[in-house]
Structures are given as structure tokens and as C-alpha cells.
Amino acid sequence: MAKNILIIGASQGIGNGFVQQLLTDTNVHHLFATYRTEETAKNLLSLESLYPDKLTTIKVNVTKENDIEQATQYIKTQVDNLHLVINCVGILHEDNLQPEKSLKHLNADNLLRYFQVNTIPAALWAKHLLPLLKHSQRSIFASISAKVGSIEDNQLGGWYGYRASKAALNMLLKNIAIEYSRVSKNTIVIALHPGTTDTQLSAPFQKNVPQEKLFSVSLCTQQLLSVMENLTIKDSGKFFSWDGSNLPW
Questions:
Q1: What's the burial of 59, exposed, middle or buried (CB within 10 Å: 0-12/13-18/19+)?
Q2: What whole-number distance in Å separates Cα of residue 166 and Cα of residue 238?
Q3: What is the pTM of this model?
Q4: Are 169 and 145 in contact (CB under 8 A)?
Q5: Among positive and negative, which fits the CA dihedral 158, 163, 165, 171?
Q6: Residue 115 neighbours by CB distance under 10 Å
Q7: Which tens digits make up the pLDDT trace of 129-187?
Q8: In terms of Cα–Cα distance, which of 93, 90, 118, 89 is closest to 105?
């Protein structure tokens, strides 16, 4: 079956890894990929020039709903439906933003920034993409979350903003799964934990990670695509780790 796929946040890291994996998949008919700035998307844009008939890149600032809506409208002019959407956008650190180790490190603006990027966009994409996912074939709406967003699994504390924004993302995805089960009955909505992957996001925090638990981007995306390949509609509303196991909310 020919598939139409959207990767959100595809300029670097796991998102870019998904694009590279899917470009070689003969079952993928049309691959859309979003990026924020040309400066950070040079690799993605070069891939588009190599695969002009298969890959379409779209510039989107996911913190602006108007950008999300316009991107969705553009996709609708190119295809009638989507079979897979993976939201890979997320931040752990940037410029003046670092994971907080203690309450004394909390900053309101930084907390808002975590939610602005890690949480809210997924719900807005689900809102606007619904018509493209609502069809007779199986479709998947997946978002990269993180095990540290699991409230039940949290034994160490710290990383207040990142943990909270991912926990809130998980709640939104659960809500979306419930609503989609009523209005888009063939769509599977899930959260995914990729494991610790060798990307810019994890780079400052890799020193204590055992080598066998630090995944390459290629291995990470292979694992997650394998997990998604085996999903059924009964899996909608769940939180999956890279190995296919269920994680507690």
C-alpha cells in the first residue's frame, strides 16, 4: 500500500533519521517533512533536492498555530490523506534554557518555553490534521515523548520543566486518542519513548549513559518504525518504549 507520511521537526536528530529511513521505503509515496529554519535544515533540504518527487519540505514554526494550519492546508493540496504522522519536535536545552536540578532553578519563562515547544504543538497538529487522518485505512498519529515524563516512573525528581511538559504531552495524547476513537476510528494515537539517542538534545547528558544504551539515530528510528508497524487499533492511547513495551503514564 502506498503511504503518505508527515514528519514534524525533521531538520535534525530523530526526525531527520525518520526521513532518511522512509526515503528508501518503496511503500512510501509522498513524504512531507517540516523544519523551522534553513540554517538548521541544510541536510533535509539537500535530501529534498535528491528526492524531489518523493520528499516535500515545509517551513513551520510549531509555536504558531497559523503556521500549522497553513502547512496542513498545503498538504491537502498535494494528497487526500495521511497514513502516518510523527511529531518529533522537542527541546531539553537551548541558549539560556537548561534542565532544572532544584526548585531554586525554576524560571517562569523557561517553564512556559518547555510547554510551548514540547506540549502544545502536538494537540494543534491533531486538531488540524484530523481530516487527513480520517479515512478507511489504518493511520497513526505518534509523538515522541520521554520516559522521564512518566509520573509513576519518576524516582529521581529534577528536570521540572521537561518532565512536566512531557507528562502534559502524554495527557493530551490520551485525550486525543479518546476523541479520535469516536471521530477517526482507524487512527492509532500513541506516545513513543525513543531511548537515549545520540542527538544534540541528549549530547550534554550522555556521559553516564552505558554505551549499549546510547542508540544511534538510525537504530532508534528503525526500532520505533518497527514498533509502529505492529500496532493495532487496540493500542491507541498507549505509551510505548523503543522495544515495544508499555510504559506507565
A1: middle
A2: 14
A3: 0.93
A4: yes
A5: negative
A6: 15
A7: 999 999 999 999 999 999 999 999 999 999 999 999 999 999 999 999 999 999 999 99
A8: 93
